[in-house]
Amino acid sequence: MKTRLFFGITIIIVMALMAVFAPFIASNDPEAMDLSAESRLQPPSAEHLLGTDNLGRDVFSRMVYGARVSLSVGFIAVGISLGIGVFLGAVSGYYGGRVDAVIMRFVEVMYCFPTLFLIMIVIAFLGPDIVNVMVVIGITSWTGLCRLVRAEFLTLRERDFVHAARVQGVSDMRVIFRHILPNAMGPVYVSVTLSVGAAILVESALSFLGLGVQIPTPSWGNILSAGKNYIDYAWWLTLFPGLAILIAVLSFNLVGESLRDMLDPRLSGRG
Amino acid sequence: MGKYILKRLLLIIPMLIGISFILFVVMHIAPGDPTSVKYGLNPDISESARSNFNKIYGLDRPVLVQYATWLRRFFFLDFGDSFMDGRPVISKIMSRLPATLLLQASSFLVIFCVALPIGIISAVRRGGLFDRTMTVAVFIGYALPAFWLALLLIFFLGFKLQLFPVSGMVPWYAVYIGGFARAGDLLWHLVLPVFATAFGGVAALSRYSRSSMIEAMGQNYVLTARAKGLSERRVILVHALRNALLPIITIMGLTLPGLISGSFIFETIFAWPGMGRLGYEAIMNYDYPVVMGVAVISTFLTLLGIFLSDIAYAAADPRIRYETRRT
Asked: Which one of A15, A121, A122, A193 makes the best mutation probe of the B interface by having the most chain B beta carbons within 10 Å?
């Protein structure tokens, strides 16, 4: 259990450091092109650790800078969905009644919609850029979190400490955010960690369809997307970005699952 | 039961209206419009021709008025005409729907037939080699970008080994071969798309059926069944499995939105002539009526699937009385 958590966190930290210190780690300018025949589509070598792409750009450098984009999309998108999901879930669970009914209907509507299609539509119409991608992934992925927080609030609001706070005349918002919310955060941490991985996957899928972060800015998804046309003779363009996405998502899931097991020992081994 | 079914069916209508409203407004408020995409850079198309186009399709009116018009026609299943080729949206979608349904139904079947046995065996031999291998495999499966998997499949099984066709559904030579051969050819074309589409679902459902099965195996009725000397096979497959299946049915229904979302990616990758690809192309061309049509139909399919799984759940579990439950 501990090793899984440690392993996941280590990889995340390494990737985050890579993203932060990208200019010092990357061996080349990620956007520098070299169209001469001898430097295009070169296999991995000492000079180009992961080879070069169809425009002669160094894939390793692009991957390092891509970590910046992919991780920040993951974190910021989840930050947005965390804000919406926690707020609506808390309000819904705390007040119940009509407020709850309206919010839950809305959640159901969002849930039954093929989310990816909605994201594709909005991105296509707003224009694909990194901010739009983050925001749209964020505002379409909060429903799970909302249900989770609501369920926690439904049980917590009947507890004595909540009644005590209300009897003392503490305002509703303060009861919700200072008294109840801290006690409801356990499952939220788990869900958020898992969501970061999911958001990275969505970004890469969008980039793959040409609706994600746009070139020349590198993201793991668009490196992969550009590389797919050369899969026949330049396997490194497809293999490495895919592996990076896989490892990143795997690490977040490892951490999320370990957190879940730690918070709720009853579930351990049942998965 | 009848009352419950009717109530659930009627609930689909407001859901569709809600979703179509959100979508319609988002789409029309967003910058960019069909005329600028189709004719924006074409010097032969004058400004007046563009405003004429907008006028014909009512794009110059307020969004809410446009939505009201759309909604009124929607009740007669009239989604308008495509901006691209002028064909009615409904006939465009209907011509693509069979391919999508074929792919989805096959994937659904594969998910069920593969994930359930994995889950049962893992639960029965809990902690064994198979269980541990599957746990790792499922974990990787969750994190695997499915479109990347699709690419690797295309590359290794399609190009390198030449085992399966990598794109399309019905090739040009299909008209020259007989019925059985044609069906076989269709199945052969289905292999890779179904594999890619079903992969995520298999990972999720096998995990879920494992924990559901473990839960059922720990119940007293399983102890009773064993105590009265039933064979282990009967205990597992009849007593435990029947109870474990209930939550699994619900989860099957909930995999539908994911499957339909996936169709937009996988149909594009595998050049599958389905609704997902139609939707993708429509988005890229600002073809509002087709986008709306695809969105509404795919949402409807999702809702229908969830509804059916609810009904299956009720049918499978005699303890459930929906009339008394608030839905």
From this structure: A121
What domain count does chain B have? 1
Cβ within 8 Å of residue B282, ≥6 positions away: B82, B84, B290, B291, B294
In 3-state terms, chain A is what percent helix, strand and coil (to 5)?
Answer: 75, 0, 25
Inter-chain residue contact B19 with A270, CB threshold 8 Å? no
**Residue A111 touches chain B, beta carbons under 8 Å:** yes
Distance CA B181, CA B175 (A): 10
Contact (CB<8Å) A117/B298: yes
- Looking at beta carbons, which residues of chain B come within 8 Å of A116? 261-262, 264-265
Query: CATH no. for residue B262?
Result: 1.10.3720.10
Distance CA B93, CA B110 (A): 25
Could you tell me the pTM of the whole model?
0.85
CA distance A271 to chain B (A): 7
Per-residue pLDDT reduced to its tens digit, A235-259 = 888 888 899 999 999 999 999 888 8
Closest residue in chain B to residue A247, using alpha carbons only: B143
Query: Quick check: ipTM above 0.85?
Result: no
Nearest CA of chain B to the CA of A114: how many Å? 5
Interchain CB contact of B154 with A (< 8 Å): yes
Note whether residue B18 is domain-resident.
no
CATH of domain A2-26+55-263: 1.10.3720.10
Supply the pLDDT for residue A270: 43
CB < 8 Å & 24+ apart, contacts of A262-266: A262/A1, A262/A5, A263/A186, A263/A187, A263/A189, A263/A190, A264/A186
Q: Is residue B301 assigned to a domain?
A: no
Q: How far apart are CA B12 and CA A267, in angstroms?
A: 35
Q: Does A102 touch chain B (CB under 8 A)?
A: no
Span B75-98, pLDDT tens digits:
888 888 888 788 888 899 999 999
Q: In B, residues 103-142, which contact A (CB 8 Å cutoff)?
A: 135, 139-140, 142
**Confidence at residue A265, expressed as pLDDT on a 0 to 100 scale:** 59
Residue B85 counted as domain residue: no
